[in-house]
Design a protein that fits this description.
Layout (H helix, E strand, L loop, with lengths): L3 H32 L6 H15 L4 H21 L6 H5 L3 H24 L4 H14 L1 H11 L3 H21 L3 H5 L3 H11 L3 H8 L4 H16 L1 H11 L7 H6 L4 H4 L2 H14 L5 H24 L3 H33 L3
């Protein structure tokens, strides 16, 4: 907890990020009122609004400490709180075949996406962010992996910005697979859960198809989100390879606090508590909303720390990597539903 002096120093920047967050949530609320669901979520809107504001105005020292605090410490708290939404019972209900398929899909796409990114000359950290974002849960995965590998604000913002664009396109285009590929509701639910980035987007992509598609898609998506914990823990083992400092950083053996960051331990602890019934159902919703609000606020902070000219320099390679990774994910998902023999 920051001291009184530190709090007074970071308060202006946090309030600024909070103002951007409120605007983003208001825009999402208007989308829901007009269209029935948000095509662009508040999390994406926050980073876009923050970047727009940063383009028009450069914050001075009065704001920078609070913006930096929101982008790092508050983001870590948000990631930790995600663990309270995870239940092992829900995962086991999906069946071992589907669980193995989801885990295998995530692993294959992470490695393939990273390789594609490096082939297209993306920096290592950017390639990791895109690989994890596409493979697991889009923006949330990018946000969770970023502090582990020491990603910079412009790298996080670039990965999220382009991933967000394709996320919207997927929501709109994915239902076309039902008539084109002859998918049943169950099959389509699996494909949607494996390819769409965020849970609200899964709902938007499956509601037009049917109730079974919504239920299966949501379940598969939640199982996929669970992969975030093991992936981030694994990233702590290789994270120093991506941090600046070259050979010295790689040669230094990290301590336990560096190996497994506190917020990852908190994530795993809350997930275990949830599975053991130590977290009442009545608390899960509020904790999830707090995590969501903090994540949106952190994304606003990331946007406020971005020079939009950097986005332009990395754009083409990022777009190609995200697109190629997403197409691979869709292809593997279609193969998986055929292998599982679901009807």
């Amino acid at each position: 907890m920051p001291s009184a002096a530190a709090l007074s120093r970071i308060a202006p920047g946090i309030l600024l990020c909070g103002a951007v967050t409120v605007v983003a949530l208001l825009v999402q609320w208007l989308e829901e009122r007009i269209f029935g669901h948000p095509y662009v979520e508040a999390l994406v809107l926050a980073i876009l609004l923050g970047t727009l504001l940063r383009t028009m105005w450069e914050p001075d020292d009065r704001w920078r400490d609070g913006i930096a605090y929101s982008a790092k410490q508050l983001l870590e708290v948000a990631v930790m709180l995600l663990g309270a939404s995870i239940s092992i019972e829900l995962i086991l209900s999906a069946g071992l075949g589907l669980l193995a398929g989801i885990a295998g899909t995530v692993a294959v796409v992470i490695f393939a996406s990273y390789g594609l990114g490096r082939l297209l000359s993306l920096p290592p950290r950017m390639a990791v962010l895109i690989a994890c974002g596409n493979s697991i849960c889009g923006n949330s995965a990018i946000a969770a992996v970023a502090p582990v590998i020491g990603a910079k604000s412009h790298e996080i913002a670039s990965a999220i910005a382009f991933t967000a664009v394709l996320g919207v396109i997927v929501v709109l285009a994915l239902p076309l697979l039902v008539p084109l590929m002859g998918l049943t509701e169950t099959q389509y639910g699996i494909v949607a859960g494996l390819t769409v980035y965020a849970v609200p987007q899964v709902l938007a992509a499956t509601v037009p198809v049917g109730t079974i598609a919504v239920q299966i898609g949501t379940l598969v998506k939640l199982v996929r989100v669970l992969m975030l914990g093991p992936v981030v823990v694994a990233m702590t083992l290789i994270g120093p390879r991506f941090a600046e400092g070259g050979d010295a950083a790689r040669a230094k053996r990290p301590g336990f606090g560096r190996l497994v960051p506190w917020f990852i331990l908190g994530f795993l602890g809350l997930a275990a508590a949830r599975s053991l019934g130590l977290i009442p159902d009545i608390l899960v919703g509020p904790v999830r909303e707090i995590s969501r609000a903090l994540t949106i606020l952190s994304m606003a902070a990331l946007g406020l720390g971005v020079d939009v000219r950097v986005l332009g320099r990395v754009g083409p390679s990022v777009v190609a990597t995200v697109t190629g990774s997403l197409l691979l994910l869709v292809a593997i998902s279609l193969v998986l539903v055929r292998m599982l023999g679901t009807a």
